């Protein structure tokens, strides 16, 4: 939360960072903050104060926000991978392709795609008849954890969850891998001393983080769908880790490691010290 907030404030206040790439970084930070605010306060309330209850409507609202914003984060990773592809493979055309107008269209697409496709997840769960216990085997209102409490068949919920996961995350991950494959080929052809190593270091850390984000979410979905008996604590742990670790690593990998971001933070700190004097 703190790192993402610092990144947002830095990009907002530093005029030199008012560029498309940094707008994408700020959008990613905003998504991380919303996800943390949706999930982490309730998780902490459960562990610290044993406040386990949640209202029916709040549960399905949390479910929708989680699914919607996770899909938006995946889509943002895809757009950022395309940004890196253009920057490395077509540097001369970068200013004409990656513009403020492009970022605006990408943001609208990201919002519309995920808001529309994920709205059916809580709707399908809410239509079920809940006549048994009302205790979720999870600390988050995940779709399948809630649906399992129903006395009705949840086959449609399982199928739709898997379909959405493959449609959104699967397509995003495929395009991301394709982009970074082309980037890798282009980087290996660079003959400038140190250029290839620098590009590999930056893009490599980006790709590892994206792969972690996608993999852990898909594993979480499959642990719910798989018929094999597994420990009920595994999906819970994966769910919490998926909301905590990427949100903590994103500002470090994408922000702090960027020289312009670090310089922007230094400028803001210098201004703050000067204002105090």
UniProtKB/TrEMBL annotation:
Lineage: Eukaryota, Metazoa, Chordata, Craniata, Vertebrata
Stored InterPro entries: GPCR_Rhodpsn, GPCR_Rhodpsn_7TM, Olfact_rcpt, OR51/52/56-like
Location, primary (coarse class): membrane
SUPFAM superfamilies: Family A G protein-coupled receptor-like (SSF81321)
Organism expressing this protein natively: Lynx pardinus (Iberian lynx)
Keyword entries, A-Z: G-protein coupled receptor, Membrane, Olfaction, Receptor, Sensory transduction, Transducer, Transmembrane, Transmembrane helix
UniProt membrane topology term: Multi-pass membrane protein
Gene Ontology cellular-component annotations: plasma membrane
Cross-referenced Pfam families: 7tm_4
Segments passing through the bilayer: 22-49, 61-82, 102-124, 164-187, 207-226
A biological-process GO annotation: cellular response to lipid
Compartments in which it is found: Membrane
Molecular function terms, GO-annotated: G protein-coupled receptor activity; olfactory receptor activity
Function: Putative odorant or sperm cell receptor.
Record domain G-protein coupled receptors family 1 profile: where: 3-254
Protein name: Olfactory receptor 56a3-like
């Amino acid at each position: 939360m703190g790192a993402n907030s610092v990144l947002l404030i830095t990009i907002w206040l530093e005029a030199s960072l008012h560029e498309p790439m940094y707008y994408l970084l700020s959008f990613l930070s905003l998504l991380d903050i919303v996800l943390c605010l949706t999930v982490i306060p309730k998780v902490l309330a459960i562990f610290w104060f044993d406040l386990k209850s949640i209202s029916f409507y709040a549960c399905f609202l949390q479910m929708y926000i989680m699914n919607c914003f996770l899909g938006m984060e995946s889509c943002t990773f895809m757009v950022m991978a395309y940004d890196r592809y253009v920057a490395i493979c077509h540097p001369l055309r970068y200013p004409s392709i990656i513009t403020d107008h492009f970022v605006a269209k990408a943001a609208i697409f990201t919002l519309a795609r995920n808001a529309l496709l994920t709205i059916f997840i809580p709707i399908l769960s809410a239509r079920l008849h809940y006549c048994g216990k009302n205790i979720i085997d999870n600390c988050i209102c995940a779709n399948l954890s809630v649906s399992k409490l129903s006395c009705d068949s949840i086959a449609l919920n399982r199928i739709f969850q898997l379909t959405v996961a493959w449609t959104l995350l699967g397509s995003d991950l495929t395009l991301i891998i394709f982009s970074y494959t082309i980037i890798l080929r282009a980087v290996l052809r660079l003959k400038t001393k140190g250029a290839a190593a620098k590009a590999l270091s930056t893009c490599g850390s980006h790709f590892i983080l994206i792969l972690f984000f996608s993999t852990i979410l898909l594993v979480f979905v499959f642990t719910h769908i798989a018929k094999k008996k597994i420990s009920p604590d595994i999906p819970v742990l994966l769910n919490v880790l998926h909301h905590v670790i990427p949100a903590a690593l994103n500002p470090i990998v994408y922000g702090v490691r960027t020289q312009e971001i670090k310089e922007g933070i230094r400028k803001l700190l210098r201004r703050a010290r000067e204002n105090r004097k």
